[in-house]
């Protein structure tokens, strides 16, 4: 099926067009720059930016795909989880488009969309082979840090654990800010860390104590780590000593990469699932990638990472899940449904 997907859950306005698993267009406009001076995504600004960017993004995607809107088999949208006001813009636009075109409307779960990104293939790109299921999926971005057990892309997704405070990307952004690095902090810390010693400072690994590995085995916590970095930097500044930015960045990055990959690989072992998939903007992190590859190999687990343009928020991944739902025989969503900022991952289609 030919499906158009709209994504507006955070700061990316995404419109993607797919035919089954074939990627025809993936156009993204980001309001990231507008949030820079606030050090994080401001929901109100994100929602307004979606309103302004949606029409041109839609036209650009249709043009790129070389299709006519009348040829679409369905219109899909992220209905949750995400920022309420931001989600509402996409949901409203998708419903209007579906009604105007007389096409079925599919409301898709954003997190499942991140997993679905992996099945898309560019007509021009090398064949990556099929995504095998079940798989463990680790989704890490500015808004979420979730570990999933995915048995099927159309109905059986289980949440194993998630962050109990900050998301991993959020931690990168906050730590960058206290080191005086600009927003978004992830790429800045990654760059600074390349020249640093990851063993210079032993920062805490959240929720990895023996008792945590019982009660919070697959959960994450990054606020203690952020506080530890803040204390470390304050102590040096109070003593009038220079802050070794590269060493702090490398040690912090190591702590995040260590916990993320350790828990994901542990889930593979515990559940007997020898596959792990990564998604979300933090997957761009060089240390997360190498440590995931090393640990996956050592554990006999196969690792999949979609191209980065599909790891960050986009509309194509949403269209991909709707296409899977259509092929599995599921009907459209009710036009009465609204945005649901806390939509659970078990609900693949609202
Ligand atoms: P959502 O949570 O809804 O997916 P988001 O916009 O916060 O939305 P993404 O756009 O996928 O998420 O990712 C942005 C986040 O990824 C930011 O927090 C950014 O700092 C982080 N990030 C980007 N590159 C890197 C990197 N190289 N290392 C670490 N973090 C990174
Ligand atoms: Mg973003
Ligand atoms: Fe996302």
Q: What this model shows, in words?
A:
The longest helix has 27 residues, at 245-271. The protein has a five-stranded mixed β-sheet, sandwiched between helices. Strands 8-7-6-9-10 form a five-stranded mixed β-sheet, with helices on both faces. The chain contains twelve helices and ten strands. It is globular and about 65 Å long. By secondary structure, the protein is an alpha/beta fold. A hairpin with a 4-residue loop joins strand 6 (135-140) and strand 7 (145-150). The site of magnesium ion has 7 residues, from loops.
Write down the secondary-structure element order: EEEHHEHEHEEEHHHHHEHEHH
The CA-CA distance between the termini, in Å, is: 19 Å
Helix content: 40-55%
Average pLDDT value? Answer: 97
Low-confidence stretches: none
Strand content: 15-25%
Which ligands does the model contain, each kind named once?
adenosine-5'-triphosphate, magnesium ion, fe (iii) ion
Query: Total strand count, please?
Result: 10
> What sort of overall outline do the alpha carbons produce when their principal axes are compared?
globular
Computed structural class: alpha/beta
- Rg for CA atoms: 20 Å
Strand order in the largest sheet? 3-2-1-4-5
Largest sheet: 5 strands, mixed
Q: So how many helices?
A: 12
Family: Belongs to the KAE1 / TsaD family.
Binding site for Fe cation: 110, 114, 313
Protein name: tRNA N6-adenosine threonylcarbamoyltransferase
EC number: 2.3.1.234
């Amino acid at each position: 099926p030919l499906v158009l997907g709209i994504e507006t859950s955070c700061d990316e306005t995404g419109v993607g067009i797919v035919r089954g698993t074939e990627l025809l267009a993936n156009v993204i406009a980001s309001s990231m720059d507008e949030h820079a001076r606030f050090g994080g995504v401001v929901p109100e600004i994100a929602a307004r930016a979606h309103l302004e960017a949606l029409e041109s993004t839609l036209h650009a995607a249709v043009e790129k795909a070389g299709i006519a809107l009348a040829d679409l088999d369905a219109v899909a949208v992220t209905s949750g989880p995400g920022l309420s006001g931001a989600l509402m813009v996409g949901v409203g636009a998708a419903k209007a488009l579906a009604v105007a075109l007389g096409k079925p409307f599919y409301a898709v779960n954003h997190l499942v969309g991140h997993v679905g990104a992996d099945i898309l293939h560019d007509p021009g790109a090398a064949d990556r082979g099929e995504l095998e299921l079940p798989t463990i999926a680790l989704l890490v971005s500015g808004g979420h840090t979730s570990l999933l057990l995915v048995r099927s892309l159309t109905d059986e997704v289980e949440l194993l654990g998630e962050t109990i405070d900050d998301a991993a990307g959020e931690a990168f952004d906050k730590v960058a800010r206290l080191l005086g690095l600009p927003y978004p902090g992830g790429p800045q810390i990654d760059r600074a860390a390349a020249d640093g010693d990851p063993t210079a400072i032993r920062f805490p690994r959240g929720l990895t104590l023996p008792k945590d590995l019982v009660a919070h085995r697959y959960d994450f916590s990054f606020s203690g780590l952020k506080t530890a970095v803040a204390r470390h930097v304050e102590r040096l500044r109070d003593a009038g000593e220079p802050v070794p930015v590269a060493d702090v960045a490398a040690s912090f990055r190591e702590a995040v990469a260590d916990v993320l990959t350790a828990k994901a690989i542990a889930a593979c072992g515990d559940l007997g699932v020898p596959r792990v998939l990564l998604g979300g903007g933090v997957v761009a992190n060089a240390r997360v990638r190498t440590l995931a590859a090393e640990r996956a190999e050592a554990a006999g687990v196969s690792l999949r990472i979609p191209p980065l343009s599909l790891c960050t928020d986009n509309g194509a991944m949403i269209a991909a899940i709707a296409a899977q739902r259509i092929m599995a025989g599921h009907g459209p969503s009710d036009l009465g449904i609204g945005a649901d900022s806390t939509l659970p991952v078990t609900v693949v289609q609202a």
